[in-house]
Amino acid sequence: MVQTAEDIRQLNDRIQQASVFVDRIEQEIAHVIVGQHYMVSRLLIGLLSSGHVLLEGVPGLAKTLAIKSLSQTIHAQFSRIQFTPDLLPADVIGTLIYNQQTHQFVVRKGPIFANFILADEINRAPAKVQSALLEAMQERQVTIGDSTYKLDEPFLVLATQNPIDQEGTYPLPEAQVDRFMMKVLIDYPSRNEEQMIIRQNVNGQQAQSKVNQVASVEEILLARDLVRKIYMDEKIESYILDIVFATRTPEKYKMEKLKPLISYGGSPRASINLALAAKAHAFISKRGYVIPDDVKSIAKDVMRHRIGLTYEAEAENVNSEFIVDEILRNVQVP
Predict the structure, then answer these.
(1) Which of 185, 201, 221 is the last residue of a domain?
(2) Nearest-5° angle of CA 222, CA 225, CA 231?
(3) Which residue, among 333, 327, 334, has the nearest Cα to 245 in the 3D structure?
């Protein structure tokens, strides 16, 4: 459907009103977390575009606290799963229990049946447990025995993993990594921010801080509907396709030097998620249309875990960040 300038103006007005809760959520999270605005904005983009988020960073950077605080700002059900090597699939999705009184098997639902799932240190669990999440993440449903159960919306898996101390961990299979809309790398706070963190914790201020519920599930679902209606010009669509296709055939975009470094490029999920995340970024910016900067700002988060590196790339210490940077530098911006 072709959108006129008047349609976009009306959509802008609706977004201005519907996005007020985003500011409220950010203010509440700021009561318990100093800085980390980048991480919080990416969690909100995942929430608004119904995309799962994988956070990676060293211990102590408030990854778990940020996810927990976000869930507390919304009137929804939160569930935390601590992934360990001895975890079983039944511990995540649930199982059938035999009732001796009725002589029947009854379903005992697992912690996956919630709106927000915090999968803490997801790479600590074996592959069969990680695969138990696949159906839930992609199909928004869980199968226990012969029955399939739909998961309530919003349903969001927010996972954390530790990039150090990899001994005894299980790298996520490509099929599961691809189901995360974004992989967000968390950095250390600035010197001033860390000084504030010290003061808060030493004075006991953080322990006293309370996160209030400032948004409802209805507001989230309405916002998600609006995000999908945000106007995206055909030129922006072409820009997204160029970025993704450049990861598959870089030589066609005059980036022959990247060809021996990439073993495989982004899947069609990369294109879909890049478009959705760009729309969510526009929503947070209170705009009813997508601009190239929306795509650029979230391109690394959407693409970094979808590019396979060759042995040659590893030998040259080239990572996916470098490849995405090169692509953004060389692909023509509309």
Answers:
(1) 221
(2) 130
(3) 327
Tokens of 292: 């190239």
* 79 close to 117: Cβ distance less than 8 angstroms: yes
What pLDDT is attached to residue 1? 53
Structure tokens at 322: 């470098």
Q: How confident is the model at residue 208 (pLDDT cuts 50, 70, 90)?
A: low
The token pair that represents 318 in the structure block:
């080239």
**SS3 track for 103-142:** CEEEEEECCCCCCEEEEECHHHCCHHHHHHHHHHHHHCEE
Read off the pLDDT of residues 105-122 as tens digits, 9 standing for 90 and up: 888 888 899 888 888 888
Q: Render pLDDT for 147-205 as a digit per residue (tens, 0 to 9).
A: 888 888 888 888 888 777 666 667 777 777 888 899 988 888 788 878 887 887 787 66
Do 124 and 83 fall into the same domain? Answer: yes
Q: Under 8 Å CB-to-CB from 194, ≥6 apart: which residues? A: 188
Q: Over the stretch 191-203, which tens digit does the pLDDT of each residue have?
A: 887 888 788 778 7
Q: Are residues 176 and 285 in the same domain?
A: no
Is the peptide bond preceding residue 154 cis, with omega within 30 degrees of 0? yes
pLDDT of residue 93: 86
Q: Is residue 54 part of a domain?
A: yes
Please tell me whether the overall predicted TM-score, pTM, comes out greater than 0.85 for this model.
yes
DSSP for residue 249: -
How many folded domains does the chain comprise? 2
- Nearest one of 307, 284, 304 to 294, comparing CA atoms: 284
DSSP state letter for 148: E
- AA letter at 40: V
Q: Are 34 and 189 in contact (CB under 8 A)?
A: yes
**For the domain that residue 316 is a member of, what is the CATH number?**
1.10.8.80
Residue 2 burial class via C-beta count within 10 angstroms: exposed 0-12, middle 13-18, buried 19 and up: exposed
